[in-house]
Amino acid sequence: MKTNVTLKIEADLLQEARVLAAEDGSSISALLATRLEEAVRERKGYNQARRSAVARLRSGFDLRWNPTRSRGEMHER
Fold first, then answer.
1. Closest CA to 17 of 37, 1, 33, 5
2. What per-residue string of b and e applies to 3-35 under the rule 16 or more CB within 10 Å gives b?
3. Helix (H), strand (E) counts: the chain
4. Per-residue pLDDT tens listing for the chain (77 residues)
5. Taking a C-beta distance cutoff of 8 angstroms, is the pair 19, 29 a contact?
6. Which of 15, 28, 67, 68 is deepest in the core (most CB within 10 A)?
7. Coil, strand, or helix at residue 18?
8. DSSP at 25
């Protein structure tokens, strides 16, 4: 379902937007809708990647680390 949105912008910005839309072969409405969709998609992608990274950090990584020996153990004779 599509919904109309009212937008207040400066006249010179509107003129530049018309030129930009015409160069893309679309309307201002289509231009804005496309840009908003890209912004939302990018944010969703970022949030998904962030959740995935946090989950990996919480589960931890097996680094196969063993505590080092004490100085006395290393120099035991």
1. 33
2. eeeeeeeeeeeeeebeeebeeeeeeeeebeeee
3. 3, 0
4. 989 999 999 999 999 999 999 999 999 999 999 999 999 999 999 999 999 999 999 998 888 888 888 888 888 76
5. no
6. 28
7. helix
8. T
